[in-house]
Amino acid sequence: MEMQKIRGKGLKGIMIFLITALALTACTSGENGKPENEAKPSATTGSNNSGGNSGTNEGAEDGPFVKYDPPIEVSFVRHLSDVVENNVLGVLKDETLENNRWTRVYEEELGIKIVNDWVVKGDITSDQYLQKINVTLASGDLPDFIPVNATQLKQLADSGQIEDVTELYNKYASPALKEALLQEGSSPFDAVTLDGKLMAIPMVEASIERSMFIWIRTDWMKKLGLQPPKTMADVLAISKAFTEKDPDGNGQPDTFGLGFTKSLWGGAMGLEGFMAGYNAFPNIWVEDASGGLVYGSVQPEVRTALQALQAMSKGGQVDPEFGIKDGSKVSELIAGGKIGMQYGEQWNSIYPLQLNKNVDTNAQWQAFPIVTESGDMAKIPLKFSTARFYAVKKGVEHPEALIKLFNMHLEKIWGETGDFGYYFAPPEAESVWQLSPVTPYPLKKNVEAFRAIDAARKAGDMSTLTGEAKTIQEKMESYYSGSKEGFAVWGWERIYSEEGSMGITDQYDKNNQFLLEKFVGAPTPTMVERKATLEKLQNEVFVKIILGDPIETFDKFVEDWKKLGGEQITKEVNEWYASTK
Amino acid sequence: MGTKTRRELPLHLMIVPGLIFIILFSYVPMAGIAIAFQKFIPAKGLFGDQQWIGWENFSYVLQLPSFTQVLLNTLLISSFKLILGLLVPLVFAILLNEVKNAVLKRTVQTTIYLPYFLSWVVLGGILIDILSPSGGIVNGLLVSLGLPKIFFLGDNNWFPFTLVGSDVWKNFGYGTIVYLAAITGIDPGLYEAATIDGANRWRKVWHITLPGMRMVIVLLSVLSLGQLLNAGFDQVFNLYSPQVYESGDILDTFVYRIGLLDAQYGVATAVGFFKSIVSLILISASYFFAYHFAKYRIF
Amino acid sequence: MGHSFNSTKTRQARKLEWFPIVNTIVLVLVAILCIFPLIHIIAISFSSSSAAAAGQVRLWPVDFTLASYEYTASRGEFWQSMWVSIKRLALGTPLNLLLTIMVAYPLSKESNALRFRLVYAWAFFLTMLFNGGLIPWYVTLKEYGLLNTIWALVLPGAVPVFSIILLLNFFREVPKELEEAALIDGAGQWTTLWKIYVPISKPALATLALFAMVEHWNSWFDGLILMGNPDNYPLQSYIQTIVIQQNLSNVSRDELLNLALISDRTLKASQIFLGSLPIIMAYPFLQKYFVKGIVLGSVKG
After folding, report:
1. Looking at chain A, which terminus has fewer C-beta neighbours within 10 angstroms, N or C?
2. Residue range(s) defining the domain that contains residue C47
3. B267 class by beta-carbon count within 10 Å (0-12 exposed, 13-18 middle, 19+ buried)
4. Which of A138, A262, A536 sits opposite B42 (nearest CB)?
5. What is the chain A residue with the closest CA to C147?
6. Alpha-carbon gap: B241 to the closest alpha carbon of chain C (Å)
7. Picking from A10-14, A220-224, C79-83, C106-110, which range would have the lowest pLDDT averaged per residue?
8. Are the CB atoms for A293 and A233 separated by under 8 Å?
9. Is CATH 3.40.190.10 the classification given to domain A210-383+516-580?
10. Where are the domains of chain B?
11. B65-294, CATH topology level
12. Tens digit of each residue's pLDDT (9 = 90 or more) over C252-279
């Protein structure tokens, strides 16, 4: 497959390295990858003698996959999301966050024993996680490897508590890792390069996954004899028809054309995609004609888009109560079959659209590419989505162990010694990969999986699929079989089938339609002071305009925004931008 | 003197354990108020080399564009909550006390205390439904009474009162408990005597029940003054939206949003300290007022 | 006053007739208003997920099912955290009450019977108003070695100052004659407190016990921050992590499935209901102490 081809070269190199330079536990035997048996001998030779404080590798030169002997211990702090607790640990009864297939791999193949200083329940974006990290930083009790955001990283670096990892990364990162993390350019590394030094390893998240689509109820379109949109005028016409032509056939004027939430933005039920149709890119910093950075929210294109939304709202195409409804409330309307169109990311079919499908089996949704006013190809805004970085505490005995863990994670899933089905997503516990503290992945893996499936589909031979593509194809087949379990994965079919959202991502990618967010550094001083104020102002004004305030309010907003710190922030952002060039 | 000391010493000894607890768990961490005067950076540590900036955190908050509006919102919302939060439970305790049927009394008592146990996240979702102008039962009721519909959660004229109303509704049942305890402390003999004297229900409430609860009423009023700058973070956070920022944004949600981006603990501590000082002034004033005029020490 | 005996009597009789009826109606209506949300949650917990997701459930389950309860019952974490909450309550409530009584009693004395009374009183009172914020609090508890132990949930809040102020005021209402009688009998302060003041203040103590229990049961923030492992979370901390408001602004790939899971309202509803059931039951149980005449009774006895 294409995916394999890309990585083949690097991996071969690693393999040679692995086999020659190491006295590793041979190659774990491929088929099931359960390494307990093979590892026993090395575990006994390790003779737990005082945690290995002296030099580790006798003779052999150290490298990306060299094992520590005697084993070393490194500490992390972790979060435990609901999905890991329920769908992984809840299913795999003999694995815990402390002792699982990943920690065993790290211990047995790298001689790295992982301990968790603490575990907090919640997502990495949750308040409690953020606060837990902050109190940990303040109490001075840092783990060896610290997951931080841009602000925290800057604070740690400024107070000299973390290692410069420039050299280590160059020396220890496996070629596959370097390649995987750079698939979308160097921005993630720019974000953690302070004064020319690499101060952390970014937990790179794919921006490409942030692509926006128009999700439309195609059963309604069919019923009303509508065609997929080619221009914004078509989108507006569909919205109007969904509102006025009683698509649910209940004789009541109780449907809305377009759904979005009170926070206006977001990966589902957001307005970024709609605005992009007017060449407006709110909330992100984009390059203007002169090569400087400007803030998308205050550009005149946003005004046009707001005007269009206001007209829709006046025409009853928008829930008049949207201004107080969050995502779960709006998804209630979607589930109840009251909304026929919404803008969001590729996964929207899994949530919230599957909720609609569960209630009404005849409902059908499909993702369509973003369209523009003129009918030209739209630019797809991509938010910079890498928000977490692993820093290394100053004075740690083996700072490079972090990078080895990164290497190993990637290798065990996508490498040649890897076992995707065991380490990434076994069918019974799909999020097993999240048991590892570090989780790098090839950024374009999802679109690559689509390409693989699509190629196999066209060739009419699905047997060639491997890894993630194979797993996904099995899901889709389960859906096509009409079984009850299959019905529950309708959302996946909507992403990866011929008319799936990932196919559109593929098109976006091939057409070079992406518009990447340009500011990726830590918040500037004025941002820290004023961002909350400016955001409040923006969302208040936008919501009110949509609900009927005169459009001139927007011009006043732009003035206010500049006065209240926006101008200063623009200056700082451009200084930062100049410094990265 | 010997007897007096012998009498007094055990009293001091009784206080000691409690005193040790508050020193260890309240006064020691209270040293952290220093953070209000620092440009506090968590990564430098609590005892690290933090930069001292005097009153800058305070002036920073004061000069933020919407501070005045936020402060006014806070005062408006919390003073209504404060007054109704004292009165409604009081009225209910008295009404409950008039119920003779023990089963009814207990059932009502338990039922009105239920909403207290549901969090605002949960109640928020329910309120959006029942207060909705399009399908909510409250507006249905208004319409059937010939009144105009009200967008309780989205209209800036109504939003503060929606907050006050729903807060009182959630908490009054729990609030009645103290009053009920005070009522049980009243000597039943007083009521019997009054009945013999031919006093009616209203007179008994006015002359026996209320005076019997005087102490608790004064006490709760004074203590609740300390809450004047707390308009209820959890509630507002779960119910407000950009649409009603202008009437619903309060000090705590404001600080939360400022702190969110950059862990500005200095600012948050400064605001907390400011609130404490205001509470202290209000409570001290009413404490001395009560002592001076009524010779009654609240504590 | 100016009325004849007869007319007063008839007026009173008429009032007696309508007031209880109106009063009952008002109270019952308000009670219904208060029970509504809980019934709604119970109805959701017994409904199918898809009906709940579409907002079809009002006050009666739609597509009745026990699935959410079966799921919740099978969750070790749920019961584990409930056990932590019970331990917390069992350790915390008696400690709260003991310290409340021991501090409130001396402070209820006049200043001439207890030197530094005002200093003590203000020392306790000020802790209600001032605190150093999250970080100093955390670091202090860490230095004491309490993190990740049940004591971190019990000890820091062991002195409920609000309750102390309430109780000292209740103690002041105790007739002085009782204490003097005890003194003549040769009873010390300790005996006076436990043999006279405590029995006579049962309604007040029942109230404070309820407050302490509710406080311990409902606290969630300290559990999230102070416990280094979800195994040690009390129930409300655990529930808090599943009922948070959804934030769709930056859903990363590993949160996606989470979102679908969290959006199952029936599960949330059943856990919220089961989670608050024990503490809701506490009140009716304590109500038996809210009986009139206790003061009188103990004076006589």
Report:
1. C
2. 5-65
3. buried
4. A138
5. A118
6. 13
7. A10-14
8. no
9. yes
10. 1-54, 65-294
11. MetI-like fold (1.10.3720)
12. 655 666 666 666 889 889 999 999 999 9
